Amino acid sequence: MGSTRRTLVLFLVLSFAHLLLMSVQMQTRSGLPLFQAGAFSVFAAIQRVMAGVSDVVRSGWSNYVALRGVAAQNDALQKQVLSLEGQVQTQAAIVSQTRALEQLLNLQQNLVASTLAARVIAGDPAPGAFVITIDRGSADGVEPNMAVLGHVGVIGRVINRPTAYAAQVQLLIGHNAGAGGVTEFSEAVGPVKGGAGDPPLEMAYVDLLKDVRVGERVLTSGLDGIFPRGFVIGTIERVVKGSGEYSEIAVRPAVDFSNISVVLVMLARPARAEGGS
Question: Could you tell me if 242 and 122 lie in one domain?
Fold first, then answer.
C-alpha cells in the first residue's frame, strides 16, 4: 500500500514536470513562451494591486499633509481675526471715551460753579448696590453729598468719606437714592427716587391736579441742597392718576447707567431753592 502511494506521488510529480516543460516550450501567438506569459500576467496583476495600494497611501498622505496645512492656516487666520477685532474694539473704546470727555468738557465750560472731571475706576460688585468709584478724592476737594453729573444728566452723589484719591458715588437709580425734581412744563414738584422697576425712577408726591404728561422732562429742582436746579433727570414715561392725592409717575433716566466712563463732580453745593408750586 505504501509503495503504491509513493508510485502515485512520483507519477504526479513527473506529470507536473512534464506539463511545466511543455508550457516552457509552447509559445503564445505573440511568440512568448506560455509559461513566461502566464508568469508575466500573474506578476502584472500583483504590480497593479501594489500600485493601487501605493496610490491610495500616497493620496491619503498628501491629503493629510494638505489638511494639516489648511488647519494651520485656519488657526493663523483665526488668531489674526481675533487680533484685529481686539484692535477695533480698543479703537472704539478710545473714540467713545474721547467723545465722552469732549461732551463733559463742553458741559464743564457752560457751568458757572466749580467742577472737577473724574474717571470711573470701579463698580460695586454687590447686586443692587448701584455704586461706582471715581479717581478723585479729598485731595482734590471732593466731599460727601457733592453732586455728580454726566454730559446728558444727573448721575448721583458722593457718599461716605472719600479717600485722598478716590470716592464712591451712589447712582440715582439706587434704592435709597433720590433728588428733588420738577417737571419742565407743568412745574410739578416732587422727589425722584430710584427703584427696581422699569423704568427705574419714580417721581413721588406729585399733586394729582398737576397736568403732568408723558414725554415731559424732569429736571432737578434744587430743593434737596445737593443738585443744582435745571439739570436733566429723565423723561416721564408713564403717568397713573390714582384715587388718592398724588399721581404715580414713572421716569426714564437720561443717563445710561450701564455705560459710565467719566463724570463731573460739583465742588460747590447749591443754595437751596425756594419750593415750587
Answer: yes
Number of domains in the chain: 2
Return per-residue pLDDT of the chain as tens, 277 residues.
Answer: 556 666 766 666 566 555 555 554 554 454 545 555 555 565 556 666 666 666 666 666 666 666 766 667 776 676 565 555 545 544 544 444 555 555 656 655 556 568 888 999 988 766 667 999 999 999 999 999 999 998 889 999 999 999 999 999 999 999 889 999 999 999 999 999 998 788 999 999 998 889 999 999 999 999 999 998 889 999 999 999 877 889 889 999 999 998 888 899 988 876 655 554 4
Give Rg (Cα) of the chain.
45
DSSP SS3 for 196: coil
C-alpha cell at 9: 506521488
Mark which of 110, 138, 171 sits at the end of a domain.
Answer: 110
- pTM above 0.70? no
Backbone angles phi, psi at 5, to 5 degrees: -65, -40
Return the SS3 of 234: strand
* Cis amide leading into 191 (omega within 30): no
Inter-CA distances, 174 with 11, 193, 224, 232, 239, Å:
113, 8, 17, 17, 21
Last residue of a domain, one of 88, 110, 132: 110
Set of cell numbers at residue 62? 498628501
Q: Residue 170 and residue 156: Cα distance in Å, rounded?
A: 5
Task: Please indicate, yes or no, whether residues 102 and 131 belong to a single structural domain of this protein.
Answer: no
DSSP bridge pairs for 185 = none
At residue 194, the 3 state secondary structure works out as: strand
Burial class (CB in 10 A: 0-12, 13-18, 19+), 249: buried
